[in-house]
């Protein structure tokens, strides 16, 4: 028998069908081992030897593989075709060797970049050995991340209470976000004006132009800096008569973008679809592993973790055939287009991300895909086909307009798409509607040099320079790739970790650093500067790539890193918390203590006369406090000082925010035992059981900025989103104890990238379907005693049935399809379902005892004394 090990159960089922009865395909469920989360798992003094362990879940899942190996002739390690996949195969082989299950077994590594029958069969026919260099690169990376995390994090906890862990790459990504925020805060806006004029051509057409030269001098962006100068410029323009000085015409060609890599797919899905990196990779994983199409599971895209932009000849010619048939000869270049990556040390062992077959058009796949899958598949399909299409041809026209003495110039420019080429299908970085709009271009009226123009209205418009924008997921991924920080396959997890640790938050699809994140970045930048430098992190990534190429020794790279890093950690042991505070107070002064409009010292204490505010550290983290403590107890949380918009004082009572226009009741902000909340109206003295509507402030809300509109928005939740088609139940969106969610019935789905205020019905249905598909939840019927639905669903440890809070796992030899309502009732009753109903009459007995006066009281005391020694004996045992 031949045993094949892949990563996911979905992939295992598909491949099992392709290979037939002589093969048994099992899933490793990702990594089967990891470094234990304790000190000493990596030992630098012992050649960086490592301890690995399997958790209980992995042991249970791996048992199927070990059982199958007892009668196996061959073992095919078919995990993903990347560095992590190579490491998983290595782990599987290591564990099986330790269990002595590989004696006489031929072990081979196979890889395929798409889950199609031919690709899988070709891989089995062309096996290889495990690539030890890729494994060593994995070991080095894993050891580095462990050593940084387990040595740097304790320093953070001791010197900066309230901080979370610090990661090797995450800390550098956090620095990018924090430095951009500092740039925005330090930015001083400049005023500038532009002057535009409209002209009428000899053929009575309108031509709009903007002022570029004034009094013989070329204007820079800030040349017209105030309204007086703008009015003067308008007067000068209005005083002249104008002719066309020059008409510049040139044809340009716009080439299609290359097919997707991991990074560009994440960026484009963010820009066009609003998907986060994590969501993009999750959807792509499903498309890669396979979709049920007509009873057969088919992988729709190639492997989605790649740096390559190349396509196979088969894929290129399939795309060219489709272009010729669908769009015509004009849209087909004479020769196939080839692309080469510009990224250093790219993983080019496989292709770009593409459809496994371009003949599977998105409209034909729509019936088999959910909303997210269809959107992403359409994006990948269009990009792949477009990359083999003819270039677009544009006519660019520039018209120079001059007054009689040629001291005043205006310019009009526009472009017209002469041939749309690949733009007929796809344009990078814009949504589909914008694609269509772009095709119209900006057409200028036909004019010739020397034509006299009639001046129309002249208008001056005020502008202000803008700070650099905060990073979106797309721009952060692009920046990390440019700097060589991390690898595209890790970007989704890096971003998730920063959010999970509350170092950053995503607001309007832009990253804003939390104060906790800024403190960590300032601390690391001052006391571990080398390890958050962009060049250092990028060079370390290059060394890891060189290990994977066999050009560097992994232990040597680790040794060089560890000697310097451990020394830096040792240096901080003598560091006093006072030194840390002084540094952070200086570093973050402009953030926490902004200039006041009234001219007062931003550090002056609002409570006492001569106190000065500064950053302080407490048991639960950092805060702002007065220098006159303990005489002055003024403190405030770490929020940016907004002058008059200080945190509301709620100790003396609720803060009135305004009247709700619908109920005419006052909306207030209050402090409760679980934090701040908003409330409509008060408790009715005649009906105290009826509670007024309340809603807790979310973690990302600044209490100082919560007004009536924000409070009413919060109180509008939960809201009805739509109707779930299968059950007819109402879909709701709200904010619960675990954050924003959508729900239908008893199915709740957490939402991170969508807003509960704006999420639409289609998106909510797709998320609920995704959750149900994952858990495969089925209502079997109602429990006769509990009067609640009995549900069958998949869980972390396998399928189970539940009613209320009672659940029972299915036996190993029982399939989901075999579960009946009768079996479920019996199994749940054995576990305790319906017990309350059966025991209800017994609760009346204590009442009978009560009526028997207090006669048994003496016995009660005696019994207690008798039982006491037994308890002691049990305790001593």
How would you characterize this protein structure?
The chain has 877 residues and is α+β, with helices and mostly antiparallel strands. The chain has 6 domains: 2-130, Rossmann fold, CATH 3.40.50.140; 140-187 and 469-578, Topoisomerase I, domain 2 (Orthogonal Bundle), CATH 1.10.460; 191-255 and 393-464, Topoisomerase I, domain 3 (Distorted Sandwich), CATH 2.70.20; 262-390, Topoisomerase I, domain 4 (Orthogonal Bundle), CATH 1.10.290; 655-715, no CATH class; 845-876. 37% of the residues lie in helices and 21% in strands. It contains 26 helices and 32 strands. The strands form 9 sheets. It has a 6-stranded antiparallel barrel. A 4-stranded parallel β-sheet has the order 2-1-5-6, with helices on both faces. A 4-stranded antiparallel β-sheet has the order 21-22-23-24, covered by helices on one side. Helix 9 (277-289) crosses helix 15 (491-500). The longest helix has 28 residues, at 132-159. The chain is globular.
Largest sheet: 6 strands, antiparallel, barrel
Task: Please write the CATH class name of the largest domain.
Answer: Mainly Alpha
CATH superfamily membership of the largest domain: Topoisomerase I, domain 2
**Mind telling me which CATH architecture of the largest domain this is?**
Orthogonal Bundle
Rounded to the nearest angstrom, the radius of gyration is 34 Å
State the strand order across the main sheet: 7-8-14-13-10-15
Mean pLDDT: 84
**Count of folded domains:** 6
Q: Please report which band the strand proportion falls in: under 5%, 5-15%, 15-25%, 25-35%, 35-45% or over 45%.
A: 15-25%
Shape by Cα distribution? globular
Structural class call reads alpha+beta
SS field, number of helical segments:
26
CATH topology of the largest domain: Topoisomerase I, domain 2
Poorly predicted tracts of residues: 430-440, 640-646, 836-877
- Distance from first to last alpha carbon: 53 Å
Q: Could you estimate the helical fraction of the residues in percent?
A: 25-40%
Work out the number of β strands: 32
């Amino acid at each position: 028998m031949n045993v094949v090990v892949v990563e996911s159960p979905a992939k295992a089922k598909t491949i099992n069908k392709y290979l037939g009865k002589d093969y048994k395909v099992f899933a490793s469920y990702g990594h089967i081992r990891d470094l234990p989360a304790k000190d000493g798992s990596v030992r630098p003094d012992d050649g960086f030897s490592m301890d690995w362990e399997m958790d209980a879940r992995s042991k249970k899942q791996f048992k199927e593989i070990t059982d199958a190996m007892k009668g196996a002739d061959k073992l095919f390690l078919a995990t993903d075709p990347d560095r992590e996949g190579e490491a998983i195969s290595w782990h599987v082989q290591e564990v099986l060797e330790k269990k002595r299950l590989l004696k006489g077994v031929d072990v081979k590594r196979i890889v395929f970049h798409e889950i199609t029958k031919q690709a899988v069969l070709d891989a089995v026919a062309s096996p290889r050995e495990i690539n030890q260099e890729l494994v060593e690169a994995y070991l080095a990376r894993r050891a580095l991340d462990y050593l940084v995390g387990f040595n740097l994090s304790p320093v953070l906890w001791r010197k900066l209470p309230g901080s979370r862990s610090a990661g090797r790459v995450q800390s550098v990504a956090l620095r990018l976000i924090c430095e951009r925020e500092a740039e925005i805060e330090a930015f001083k806006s400049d005023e500038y004006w532009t002057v535009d004029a409209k002209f009428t051509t000899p053929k009575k057409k309108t031509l709009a132009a903007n002022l570029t030269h004034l009094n013989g001098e070329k204007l820079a962006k800030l040349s017209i800096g105030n309204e007086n100068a703008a009015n003067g410029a308008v007067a000068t323009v209005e005083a002249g008569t104008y002719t066309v000085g020059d008409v510049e015409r040139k044809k340009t060609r716009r080439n299609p973008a290359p097919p997707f890599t991991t990074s560009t797919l994440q960026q484009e899905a963010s820009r066009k679809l609003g998907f986060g990196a994590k969501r993009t990779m999750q959807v792509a994983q499903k498309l890669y592993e396979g979709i049920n199409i007509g009873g057969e599971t088919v992988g729709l895209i190639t492997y989605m973790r790649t740096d390559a932009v190349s396509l196979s000849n088969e894929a290129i010619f399939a795309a060219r055939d489709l272009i010729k048939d669908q769009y015509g000869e004009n849209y087909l270049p004479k020769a196939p287009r080839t692309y080469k990556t510009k990224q250093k040390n790219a993983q080019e062992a496989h292709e770009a991300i593409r459809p496994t077959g371009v003949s599977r058009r998105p409209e034909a796949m729509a019936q088999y895909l959910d909303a997210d899958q269809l959107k992403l598949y359409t994006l990948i399909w269009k990009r792949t086909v477009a990359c083999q299409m003819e270039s677009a041809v544009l006519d660019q026209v520039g018209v120079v307009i001059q007054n009689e003495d040629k001291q005043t110039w205006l310019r009009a420019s526009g472009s017209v798409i002469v041939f749309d080429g690949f733009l007929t299908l796809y344009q990078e970085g814009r949504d589909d509607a914008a694609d269509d709009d772009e095709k119209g271009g900006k057409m200028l009226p036909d004019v010739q040099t020397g034509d006299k123009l009639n001046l129309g209205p002249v208008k001056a418009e005020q502008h202000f320079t803008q700070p650099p924008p905060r990073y979106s997921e797309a721009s952060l991924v692009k920046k990390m790739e440019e700097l060589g920080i991390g690898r595209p396959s890790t970007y989704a997890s890096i971003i998730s970790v920063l959010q999970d640790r509350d170092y950053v938050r995503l607001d309007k699809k832009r990253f804003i650093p939390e104060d906790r994140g800024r403190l960590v970045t300032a601390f690391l930048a001052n006391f571990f500067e080398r390890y958050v430098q962009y060049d250092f992190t990028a060079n370390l990534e290059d060394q890891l790539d060189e290990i994977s190429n066999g050009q560097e020794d992994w232990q040597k790279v680790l040794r060089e890193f560890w000697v310097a890093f451990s020394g830096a950690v040792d240096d901080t042991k003598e560091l006093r918390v006072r030194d840390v505070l002084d540094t952070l107070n200086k570093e973050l002064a402009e953030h926490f203590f902004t200039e006041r409009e009234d001219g007062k010292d931003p550090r002056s204490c609002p409570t006492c006369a001569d106190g000065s505010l500064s950053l302080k550290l407490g048991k639960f983290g950092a805060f702002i406090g007065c220098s006159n403590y303990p005489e002055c107890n003024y403190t405030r949380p770490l929020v940016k000082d907004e002058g008059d918009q200080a945190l509301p004082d709620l100790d003396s009572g609720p803060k009135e925010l305004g009247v709700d226009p619908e109920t005419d009741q006052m909306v207030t902000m209050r402090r409760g035992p679980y934090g701040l909340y908003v409330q409509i109206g008060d408790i009715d003295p005649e009906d105290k059981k009826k509670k007024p509507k309340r809603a807790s402030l979310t973690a990302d809300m600044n209490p100082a900025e919560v007004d009536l509109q924000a409070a009413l928005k919060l109180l509008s939740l939960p809201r009805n989103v739509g109707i779930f088609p299968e059950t007819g139940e109402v879909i709701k969106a709200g904010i619960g104890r675990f954050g924003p969610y959508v729900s239908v019935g008893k199915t709740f789905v957490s939402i991170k990238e969508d807003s509960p205020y704006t999420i639409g019905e289609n998106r909510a249905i797709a998320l609920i379907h995704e959750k149900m598909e994952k858990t495969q939840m089925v209502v079997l019927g109602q429990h006769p005693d509990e009067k609640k639905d009995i549900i069958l669903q998949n869980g972390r440890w396998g399928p189970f049935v539940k009613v209320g809070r009672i659940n029972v796992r299915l036996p190993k030899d029982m399939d989901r399809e075999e579960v009946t309502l009768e079996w479920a009732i019996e199994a749940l009753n054995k576990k305790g379902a319906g017990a309350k109903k059966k025991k209800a009459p017994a609760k009346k007995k204590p009442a009978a005892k009560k009526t028997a006066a207090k006669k048994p009281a003496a016995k009660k005391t005696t019994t207690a004394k008798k039982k006491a020694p037994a308890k002691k004996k049990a305790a001593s045992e």
